[in-house]
Amino acid sequence: MRTTANGKIATLEAHGFTARIASVGAALAGLEFRGRPLVRPFDTDRARPVYSGALLAPWPNRVVDGRYGWQGREHQLALTEPARGHALHGLAANTDFTVTAEDASSLRLAALLPAQEGYPFALELAVEFRLDQDGLRTLVTAANIGRDTAPLGWGSHSYLLAPGRPEDWVLTLPAAAVQETRGERLLPGRLVPVEQFDHGALDFRAPRALGQTFIDHAYTRLQADSSGLFHASVTDAQGVGAQITWDEACRWVQVHTADRPEPELDRTGLALEPMTCPPDAFNSHQHLIALEPGASHQASWLIGPVQPR
Q1: Which of 97, 111, 244, 247 has the fewest CB atoms below 10 angstroms from its CB?
Q2: Is the model's pLDDT at 106 over the cut of 90?
Q3: Of 79, 92, 96, 241, nearest to 173 (Cα)?
Q4: Are 260 and 143 in contact (CB under 8 A)?
């Protein structure tokens, strides 16, 4: 196991898949199926760009102004998105996890999130990665080891890939509602039916090409399959690409077309981010988990290939 700028790097191989996982942020640094990339990889010898592949906890997305109230007390988080004035994507993304178990096809990581200014709650995090015939499965567990009930949300931040030009990629997202955003700070707004938002511009319940559509929005009212799981996929016109599947713990998904000033990052992957709660849930409390002392919470997701039958 090699040590890099992103911590220790584990390589898993099984069933035609190869996964690279960085201990910092429990981040998925790369995933391939028979040599075809399913997620946008990053160079682990350099700073990880834009939260690629990272675990988002104890909150996903933004806490507006970094301020929130919880059980009668006000808290101020560090503004980790200074251009917009928000606390972004939690505390786990820059935490170096410890490897607790590893074999050829699986990896277990663990970390302590200590009580700290802005988030005075202590959590133990555990992440299990496992390759099987369907792809890379991730199971995350948070346990409250403190004395106070802790606010908690989860998220995942992989950028999925399909062959060909991103403007030709086809997105399938069975979500019936999308949250509006306000202004350059992307403040969360109303929840509206997807068919009513900008004349259906963000409605991908039926598969269609992304084109030049800009997306940086949270979706919900997800349609589950017969097993109670949710799916979103990005493919080329021939139906080749990648899919993420997640369980009912995550009732939201953030989608971002990765519009960036850096040429190597600009629209070179599609972020599909399952989340347990919407942006700024520390203030709205919508779908926010109140994790009592001694309690734990789990969520899981799977990234795998999509290929024509």
Answers
A1: 247
A2: yes
A3: 241
A4: no
pLDDT of residue 121: 99
The band of 218, judged by pLDDT with boundaries at 50, 70 and 90, is very high
Token pair for 60: 């996903």
Would you say 157 and 138 are in contact if contact means Cβ atoms under 8 Å apart? no
Fold of 2-306: Beta-galactosidase; Chain A, domain 5 (2.70.98)
Mean pLDDT of the chain: 97
Domain residue extents for the chain: 2-306
* pLDDT for residue 97 is more than 90: yes
Residue 15 confidence (pLDDT): 99
Handedness of CA 163, 169, 170, 173 (dihedral sign): positive
Q: For residue 48, which amino acid is it?
A: R
Beta 175-182 vs 216-222: how paired, if at all?
antiparallel
Residue with structure tokens 């196991």?
1
How many Cβ atoms from other residues are within 10 Å of residue 3's Cβ?
10
d(CA 13, CA 233): 23
**Nearest alpha-carbon partner for 163 in 255, 22, 36:** 36
In the numeric block, which tokens belong to residue 170?
A: 């086809």
Cα 55 to Cα 238: distance, rounded to the nearest angstrom = 31
Share of the chain above pLDDT 70, in %: 100
